[in-house]
Known about the structure:
There is one protein chain. The protein is mainly beta. The chain is 0% helix and 51% strand. The protein contains no helices and eleven strands. The model has no long low-confidence stretch (mean pLDDT 94).
Amino acid sequence: QVQLVESGGGLVRAGGSLRLSCAASGVAFSRRAMGWFRQAPGKEREFVSSITWMGGQRDYADSVRGRFTISRDNAENTVYLEMNSLKPEDTGVYYCAAYRRPTPVPHEYDYWGQGTQVTVSS
């Protein structure tokens, strides 16, 4: 099975930046699309971004497009989320997920990390 560990969360002022990392272990990381999700206080978990196994296709939620960038380094088994121009509404627990296939088919993810807290103050 895949083990995912997120890091890089913290407290930042509006307009600031953070870089989240998701380190994966296990051979099952191979050929899997990866994604980032978040859950704001009192809200349901929502999709943020995804990336195909080879990194050639990237998708973003409308709310973060142009501000966030997803990337991956398969040699290091790590996925990143660069977050710029952060807004208070970006606050939440951010989770990375491993999809079942090389492409990120919606709702077909298998593994989740423990999450990392991101708090954006006004």
